[in-house]
């Protein structure tokens, strides 16, 4: 019997109603307070500037005081309850940023945008359920990608680290102009699509029925967005609203699941009879199995790709298309099956960080492929040293540091965090550099956790992934601590409070990937 899956729309709507009431309360009082324009970081500036011809510029309709402000102050002045509810509903997506910025009451159009989005969410969920709402959001983002135009639900706020005066000015431009040049607009559209799928994955984990279906859907929304969106079509309401009723995508999901079962059997056989398994005896008993499997899979993946390099292989997309269209299943052995190798790479690194490894092999681009191998080696080195549950912390904090370094160039008051004591020194070959993957690394690590970090603990596994999507590393560490047990050395309450600055390390000199 198929597993029943549904969203808890009632709980979502209750929280949404709380946010709408609090937002209106905060906005209604904002114009009565001079706190918005007091302080060292905020100075009023004339909202209407004149050109040399004496005419007002295109931003003459700004009806509030434009502010010159350090971006760090944007979120320091947000009402705590609004910020809490917004993050719980929409995670750390740019819709959450838009609502937080709008709640300051600096510009009426921002307020209108936020209210319109909240009303849209409430109306869709109330009438058709969360599945239909999420599908509509994803469809809107997908059409934006196809048409190369900003979508209806695409917020102007694209990053939490930008000047509020720039955001306000962009909001008063036309839709096609407010996101910058053609290249900048294309990047904003890609980011919008990524945020839409991250929000769908987060809502699936938070309000979806517990079970393997929830985990599978969230994984696909993060790693295989097309398939994840298709899974939402299993909701009859979504199909009744006009979504394509074609369910052949299930063939792909079923086939990949069969490959994973086959891989589990081969791993179990090698674990019993092979003398060349990764050594993780120094690791905590709770993580030895997952650490060994991660290191084993990483090594076998690279070996398989190198063995297939001189041989002709068909495009994985072509093979998957044939599976979906005609149920034409490949006949290659497991470690020569590019569909399995692609799925394995994404389970180890996430779709974005595995893109150079997979794409380099598909195109036979040695430079990109070796970049992907080096990143996988660096990740395996951290797993060998600390254990798999700590890998997301290292990756996300390294990403955070690189983002702060970039923001510091434009806004010197932003402090650059120092995570050197968290991650020990490595040579260039094992340097963990994720700076080019921007926010994608967060979704990548959440997808990896869903598949590999305590997957048998359904609720804890979902909570860990949600904590990563919200970039709440303390919450993530707390869940890990509970799974390790209170008596585990290095994982007491004090270490969680100070996370990620503390934590034990295990000695390791095992080179996982040749």
Topology:
Elements: H1 9-29, E1 42-45, E2 66-69, H2 72-76, H3 80-90, H4 94-102, H5 108-128, H6 130-147, H7 164-171, H8 182-207, H9 212-223, H10 225-232, H11 236-240, H12 249-273, H13 288-308, H14 316-326, H15 338-349, H16 355-363, H17 366-386, H18 391-410, H19 440-452, H20 458-469, H21 473-484, H22 493-497
Antiparallel strand pairs: 1-2
Descriptive report:
This is Riboflavin deaminase. It is a single chain. The protein has 514 residues and is mostly helical. It has two domains: 194 residues, no CATH class; 207 residues, no CATH class. 59% of the residues lie in helices and 2% in strands. It is built from 22 helices and two strands. The protein has a two-stranded antiparallel sheet with strand order 1-2. Helix 13 crosses helix 15 and helix 15 crosses helix 19. The longest helix has 26 residues. The chain is globular and about 70 Å long. The two termini are 45 Å apart. The C terminus is likely disordered.
Contiguous helical run count = 22
> What is the radius of gyration computed over CA atoms, rounded to a whole number of angstroms?
24 Å
Number of domains: 2
Number of DSSP E strands: 2
The arrangement of helices and strands along the chain is: HEEHHHHHHHHHHHHHHHHHHHHH
Low-confidence stretches: 32-73, 487-512
Strand percentage lies at under 5%
- Mean pLDDT, to the nearest integer, reads 82
């Amino acid at each position: 019997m198929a597993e029943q899956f549904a969203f808890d729309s009632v709980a979502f709507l209750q929280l949404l109603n709380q946010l709408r009431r609090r937002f209106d309360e905060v906005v209604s009082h904002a114009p009565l307070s001079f706190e918005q324009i007091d302080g060292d970081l905020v100075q009023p500036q004339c909202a209407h500037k004149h050109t040399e011809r004496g005419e007002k510029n295109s931003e003459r309709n700004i009806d509030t005081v434009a502010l010159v402000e350090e971006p760090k102050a944007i979120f320091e002045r947000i009402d705590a309850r609004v910020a809490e509810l917004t993050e719980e509903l929409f995670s750390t997506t740019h819709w959450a940023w838009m609502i937080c910025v709008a709640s300051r009451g600096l510009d009426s159009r921002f307020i209108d945008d936020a209210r319109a989005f909240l009303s849209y969410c409430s109306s869709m969920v109330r009438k058709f359920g969360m599945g239909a709402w999420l599908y509509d959001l994803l469809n809107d983002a997908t059409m934006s990608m196809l048409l190369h135009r900003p979508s209806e639900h695409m917020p102007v706020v694209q990053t939490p680290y930008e000047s509020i005066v720039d955001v306000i000015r962009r909001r008063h431009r036309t839709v096609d102009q407010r996101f910058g040049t053609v290249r900048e607009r294309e990047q904003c559209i890609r980011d919008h699509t990524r945020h839409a799928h991250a929000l769908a994955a987060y809502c699936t984990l938070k309000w979806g029925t517990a079970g393997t279906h929830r985990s599978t859907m969230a994984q696909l929304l993060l790693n295989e967005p097309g398939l994840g969106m298709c899974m939402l079509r299993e909701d009859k309401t979504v199909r009744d609203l006009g979504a394509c009723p074609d369910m052949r995508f299930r063939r792909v999901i079923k086939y990949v699941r069969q490959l994973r079962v086959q891989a589990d059997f081969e791993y179990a056989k090698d674990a019993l009879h092979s003398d060349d398994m990764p050594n993780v005896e120094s690791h905590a008993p709770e993580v030895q199995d997952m650490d060994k499997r991660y290191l084993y899979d990483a090594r076998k993946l690279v070996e398989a790709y190198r063995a297939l390099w001189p041989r002709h292989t068909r495009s994985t997309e072509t093979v998957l298309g044939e599976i979906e269209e005609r149920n034409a299943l490949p006949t290659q052995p497991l470690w020569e099956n590019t569909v399995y190798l692609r799925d394995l790479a994404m389970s180890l690194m996430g779709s974005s960080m595995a893109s150079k490894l997979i794409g380099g092999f598909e195109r036979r681009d040695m430079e990109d492929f070796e970049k992907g191998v080096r990143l996988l080696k660096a990740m395996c080195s951290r797993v060998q040293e600390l254990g798999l549950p700590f890998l997301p912390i290292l990756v996300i904090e390294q990403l955070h540091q690189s983002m702060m370094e970039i923001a510091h160039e434009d806004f010197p008051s932003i402090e650059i965090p120092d995570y050197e004591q968290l991650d020990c020194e490595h040579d260039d070959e094992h340097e963990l550099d994720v700076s080019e993957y921007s926010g994608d690394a967060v979704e990548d690590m959440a997808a990896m956790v869903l598949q590999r970090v305590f997957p048998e603990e359904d609720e804890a596994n979902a909570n860990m992934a949600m904590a990563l999507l919200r970039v709440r590393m303390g919450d993530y560490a707390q869940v890990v601590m509970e799974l390790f047990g209170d008596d585990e050395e290095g994982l007491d309450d004090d270490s969680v409070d100070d996370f990620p600055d503390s934590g034990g390390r295990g000695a390791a000199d095992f080179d996982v990937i040749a």
